Amino acid sequence: MTQIKLSERAAAIQPSPTMALDAKTKALISQGLDVVNLTAGEPDFDTPEHIRQAAEASINRGETRYTAVAGTVRLREAVASRIRQDTGLTYEPSEILVSSGAKHSLYNAVLALTNPGDGVLLPVPYWVTYPEQIRLAGGEVQTVAIDPAHKGELTAEDLAQAIRPNTKGLIVNSPSNPSGAVIGRAHLEGIARFAREHDVWVITDEIYSRLVYDGVEAPSLAGFEGMRERTILINGVSKAYAMTGWRIGYAAGPKAIIQAMSNLQSQSTSNPTSISQAAAEAALKGPQEPVEEMRREFDRRRRFAVSRIQSIPGLSVNEPKGAFYLWVSMAQVVGRTIRGRTITNADDLALLWLEEANVSVVPGSGFGMPDHFRISYATSMQKLAEGLDRMEQLLGE
Ligand SMILES: Cc1ncc(COP(=O)(O)O)c(C=O)c1O
Q1: CATH number at residue 137
Q2: Separation of 56 CA from ligand 1 center, angstroms?
Q3: Which residue of 103, 107, 209, 374 sits with most ligand 1 atoms within 8 Å of its CB, as the best mutation to test the pocket?
Q4: Burial (Cβ within 10 Å: 0-12, 13-18, ≥19) of residue 382
Q5: Is the dihedral of CA 290, 102, 42, 207 positive or negative?
Q6: Average of pLDDT values for 164-188?
Q7: Range of the domain at 39
Q8: Domain ends where: 230, 261, 285?
Q9: Residues with CB under 6 A from ligand 1
Q10: Is the pLDDT of residue 16 over 90?
């Protein structure tokens, strides 16, 4: 029998490590094991009722056919209006592309902007999907170390250390998954200056922009001088409105780039689901109180989890200002032996916790920092407390 050989592109791609661990955890739970799952990358709340009702109404109106590839004009107007309210930036519907999740929006943007051999700057830690998307486009991942003095906030100085002659682009994610860091106005100013001076395009992933705490603001990088024309702004409804399964994300940027992204989408997936588009429209235009309610609850858990982790010997964490993750250093645990296993990195520790304490976290290797791990606090207070207790207990042995 002849064996079909995979393309080099397909063979080189790494599956999402966060999803792999989540799948393993869910498999153990389905076998009846009492596993506390702190890996989730999605809100644990239900999609608000008025949004679900809008989807039902859309089905009943018979909106079950293809829409415009870029999304309905009504939804793109709702996106424009939301961006205007949240950032002060104005975009025409022709400068907006709706896709099947923000991950899809990012993929369209990376494909539209990256030529084989182009360097793309990627601050560390990065969300696991970015390097794979850059590689899929044939680009070169150029990691950027963030000065620890700035607690996860990227600065122009960090970028200056990493730029190379073939650098063409930069991906910025604030608030960050996994670190929860939010880049402040002064640093964004510097990053904008860097982008202008070196003529690099920028993708700014602002999917967690509505989930910020302690009164910090998360301004859009697209709003800084000279940035609108070189920036693709990415956002979506998944995180703010608890709509991860609906698969709606969007991109806003210069018309020519949005058109190119739309062309790519037209020959791959076409429009995102018509019904989800109606739901997203209701989310963006309707009452915003549910977002605030969820944000407050995340904040309560964040405060609890940060102080709890700070009390566990061997672990340390910077207080995150956005998203719903804690990015925890386990560097002090490296070299220790627990239950006969020597811990060399967070992968070892995550596996030990899962197998010996039934608690699941995501190791940092996929995010570019193998001595860190990510905890999601998108879970109940009770589960969070139980999970942290189990982690501490095993570490204490
Ligand atoms: C930083 C970041 N960007 C984008 C996404 C993708 O969002 P979506 O579910 O809309 O594709 C995620 C989801 O985990 C994320 O963490």
Answers
A1: 3.40.640.10
A2: 25
A3: 103
A4: exposed
A5: negative
A6: 98
A7: 8-46+290-395
A8: 285
A9: 41, 101-103, 127, 173, 177, 205, 207, 236, 238, 244, 249
A10: no
For a pocket test of ligand 1, which of 19, 100, 104, 129 has the largest count of ligand atoms closer than 8 A to its C-beta? 129
Please check whether residues 63 and 77 belong to one and the same domain.
yes
Q: Are residues 97 and 206 in the same domain?
A: yes
User: Which residue in the block uniquely carries the two structure tokens 């309560």?
Assistant: 300
pLDDT tens across 93-109, in order? 999 999 999 999 999 99
Give the pLDDT score at 315. Answer: 98
pLDDT in tens, 284-341: 999 999 999 999 999 999 999 999 999 999 999 999 999 999 999 999 999 999 999 9
Residues 81 and 173 in one domain: yes
Q: Compute how many other C-beta atoms are within 10 angstroms of the C-beta atom of residue 7.
A: 8
Query: Is residue 347 over pLDDT 80?
Result: yes
pLDDT at 262 over 80: yes
Q: What is the DSSP string of 59-100?
A: HHTT--S---TT--HHHHHHHHHHHHHHH-----GGGEEEES
pLDDT at 20: 67
The domain boundary residue, chosen from 229, 256, 285: 285
Taking the C-alpha atoms of residue 274 and residue 45, their distance in angstroms, rounded to an integer, is 23
Q: Give yes or no: residues 221 and 328 share one domain.
A: no
- 8 C-alpha to center of ligand 1: Å? 26
Say how many domains are in the chain.
2
Encode pLDDT of 185-237 as tens digits.
999 999 999 999 999 999 999 999 999 999 999 999 999 999 999 999 999 99
Cα 157–chain centre separation? 24
Which stretches does DSSP call E strand in the chain?
36-37, 96-99, 119-124, 140-145, 167-173, 201-205, 231-236, 249-252, 316-317, 325-329, 337-338, 341-342, 359-360, 362-363, 372-376
Residue 199 shares a structural domain with residue 333: no
Does 150 reside within a domain? Answer: yes
373 — pLDDT class (breaks 50, 70, 90):
very high
Is 3 part of any domain? no
Q: Does residue 175 lie within any of the structural domains?
A: yes
